[in-house]
């Protein structure tokens, strides 16, 4: 027989909503209710989570079960929730110690970075399984920890030294005791200079150009091309006073100041330079000639000059600053000839190459002798170079061809083979940080030559330890003026630097001077040197004789710098073999 469940009497409140007053409710409940007596009331609020009304499964350990009131005590314990956190108000009424319960016994997470993290590594750990997987994880963790420490220390050092410390760099030329220092100019004064020059005029065009092969614009890291070697083509890097065309223009009084585009670009981008360089200045009558020494560092291309990551200092290291400069010059020359259509079709100009002998094969290059007006009675003539030509809409456009080279991704932090297709902007930004001076000089040379387009090639080693074999990963074209704006290269400031140095040198007496970039400070110095200085340059050069880029005693009017760069490259390869 199933028993029924009686709800009991529900009291009626004639005075309003809710239960009646306590006295009335107590009387009514006592008289009419069938609910058990002595049931405790557990107070709660609306925001609290309600628990159970009664827990009949609770195991009550009552040692006084034989006592008369044992059943009443057990019944009360069923409704006793003072130890239950479901009713905070009831739990608060009990003893704090008896209701306290620890939620999480694990220690708080330790920060991964900071001074305490590095010194508290030897803390006790739980025993782990010593298998190959665990050991591999430990090795990876050690490598990651070492990398983070290296970056942390590097960032700490860069806060106080925003530029790489250049105290260990050597001067590009030995300062002799008989030289007289006339002036020193800090780079901070160059940033305030500004000068606007009118459009230049072309006095003469020499040489011949081959057409650019547009198929190289479609190269990607997935279909890379091997960089070829062009040892049979001659490249000429002739200084100003050894140029027969400039000598002829000087005799005809076409200008007052004479230079080359490489020398002008070095002056224009001087505030971005870190390595030491020097320019020889000759004042002859009322004319001024800016020259470079035989075997000067201006013939090479700096690598990672403005990077915070230092390069190895050993000269025999393939990743040293000097070895990378020779490698970059070697890559740049070969790249400028490989991206051409070599079918014998050339664009000839007024005169042939002024430095080539009869019948020898020369590189594709055109020399534009251009004149700028600096003052009412002062003109500047410079020899500017372009390496190729392209025909667009039946109009010929001049191109400059240069190559950036990757030698080891761990120095730059960006792997070109992985990032060039998806993050080309990040690769260019990294190169602008590490090679700001080189890229600015290339842009300045394209601007003074009025090139319509400048092509930048991305050339990488086949293997980081092989500095003789390279591949072309990509070729990107830029308009020089747009690229100059992108790298914050101000044309007015460039010409302001040149104009200030020309005005300073025009105040000097007749003689020979040298402008030297300080190896450790952002400034240049002007020295007065004897008239026969630098005639035996390989003796005074701080580099050893066997490391000279140009062999001594060679005729400067027929300097074949491709042989110099390739010979040095061959020597390094043979030495390592």
UniProtKB/TrEMBL annotation:
Region (Disordered) residue ranges read 98-148, 537-577
Give the start-end ranges of region RNA gate.
297-311
Q: Which domain of life is it from?
A: Eukaryota
Compositional bias annotation for Acidic residues? 537-558
Supply the alphabetized keyword list.
Cytoplasm, Initiation factor, Protein biosynthesis, RNA-binding
Q: Basic and acidic residues: which segments have biased composition?
A: 128-148, 568-577
Among InterPro entries, the record links this protein to: eIF3d
Cellular localization per UniProt: Cytoplasm
Which Pfam family, any one of them, does this sequence belong to?
Answer: eIF-3_zeta
**Domain remark text:** The RNA gate region regulates mRNA cap recognition to prevent promiscuous mRNA-binding before assembly of eif3d into the full eukaryotic translation initiation factor 3 (eIF-3) complex.
What is said about its interaction partners and assembly? Component of the eukaryotic translation initiation factor 3 (eIF-3) complex.
Give the PANTHER family listed for this entry: EUKARYOTIC TRANSLATION INITIATION FACTOR 3 SUBUNIT 7 (PTHR12399), EUKARYOTIC TRANSLATION INITIATION FACTOR 3 SUBUNIT D (PTHR12399:SF3)
The text of the family note is: Belongs to the eIF-3 subunit D family.
Could you tell me what this protein does? mRNA cap-binding component of the eukaryotic translation initiation factor 3 (eIF-3) complex, which is involved in protein synthesis of a specialized repertoire of mRNAs and, together with other initiation factors, stimulates binding of mRNA and methionyl-tRNAi to the 40S ribosome. The eIF-3 complex specifically targets and initiates translation of a subset of mRNAs involved in cell proliferation. In the eIF-3 complex, eif3d specifically recognizes and binds the 7-methylguanosine cap of a subset of mRNAs.
Q: What is this protein called?
A: Eukaryotic translation initiation factor 3 subunit D
């Amino acid at each position: 027989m199933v028993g029924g469940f009686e709800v009991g009497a529900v009291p009626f409140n004639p005075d309003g909503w809710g239960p009646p007053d306590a006295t009335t409710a107590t009387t009514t409940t006592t008289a009419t209710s069938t609910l058990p007596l002595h049931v405790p009331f557990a107070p709660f609020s609306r925001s609290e989570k309600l628990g159970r009304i009664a827990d009949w499964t609770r195991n009550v350990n009552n040692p006084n079960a034989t006592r008369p009131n044992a059943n009443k005590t057990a019944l009360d314990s069923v409704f006793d929730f003072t130890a239950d956190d479901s009713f905070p108000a009831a739990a608060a009424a009990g003893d704090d110690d008896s209701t306290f319960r620890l939620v999480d016994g694990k220690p708080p997470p330790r920060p991964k970075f900071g001074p305490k993290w590095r010194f508290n590594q030897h803390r006790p750990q739980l025993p782990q399984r010593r298998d190959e997987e665990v050991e591999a994880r430990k090795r990876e963790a050690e490598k990651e920890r070492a990398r983070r420490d290296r970056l942390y220390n590097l960032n700490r050092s860069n806060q106080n030294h925003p530029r790489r410390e250049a105290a260990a760099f050597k001067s590009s030329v030995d300062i002799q005791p008989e030289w007289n220092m006339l002036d020193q100019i800090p780079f901070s004064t160059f940033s305030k200079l500004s000068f606007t020059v009118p459009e230049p005029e072309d006095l003469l065009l020499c040489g011949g150009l081959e057409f650019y092969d547009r198929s190289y614009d479609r190269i990607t890291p997935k279909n890379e091309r091997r960089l070829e070697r062009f040892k049979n083509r001659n490249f000429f890097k002739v200084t100003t006073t050894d140029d027969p065309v400039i000598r002829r223009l000087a005799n005809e009084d076409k200008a007052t100041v004479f230079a080359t585009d490489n020398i002008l670009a070095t002056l224009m981008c001087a505030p971005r330079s870190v390595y030491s360089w020097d320019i020889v200045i000759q004042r002859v009558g009322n004319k001024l000639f800016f020259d470079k020494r035989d075997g000067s560092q201006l013939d090479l291309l700096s690598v990672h000059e403005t990077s915070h990551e230092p390069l190895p200092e050993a000269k025999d290291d393939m990743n040293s600053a000097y070895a990378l400069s020779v490698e970059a010059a070697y890559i740049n020359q070969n790249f400028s000839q490989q991206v051409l259509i070599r079918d014998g079709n050339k664009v000839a100009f007024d005169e042939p190459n002024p430095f080539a002998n009869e019948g020898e094969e020369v590189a594709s290059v055109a020399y534009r002798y251009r004149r700028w007006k600096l003052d009412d009675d002062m003109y500047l003539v410079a020899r500017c170079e372009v390496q190729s030509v392209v025909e667009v809409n039946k109009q010929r456009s001049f191109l400059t061809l240069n190559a950036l080279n990757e030698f080891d991704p761990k120095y730059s932090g960006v792997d070109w083979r992985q990032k060039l297709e998806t993050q080309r902007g990040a690769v260019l930004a990294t190169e602008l940080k590490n090679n700001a001076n080189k890229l600015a000089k290339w842009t300045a040379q394209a601007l003074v030559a009025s090139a319509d387009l400048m092509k930048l090639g991305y050339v990488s080693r086949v293997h980081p330890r092989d500095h003789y074999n390279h591949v072309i990963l990509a070729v990107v074209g830029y308009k020089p003026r747009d690229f100059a704006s992108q790298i914050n290269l101000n044309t007015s400031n460039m010409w302001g630097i040149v104009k200030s140095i020309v005005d300073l040198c025009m105040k000097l007496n007749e003689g020979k001077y040298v402008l030297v970039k300080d190896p450790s400070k952002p400034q240049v110095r002007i020295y007065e040197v004897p008239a026969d200085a630098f005639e035996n340059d390989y003796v005074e050069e701080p580099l050893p004789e066997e490391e000279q880029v140009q062999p001594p005693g060679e005729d400067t009017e027929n300097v074949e710098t491709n042989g110099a760069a390739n010979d040095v490259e061959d020597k390094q390869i043979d030495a390592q073999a």
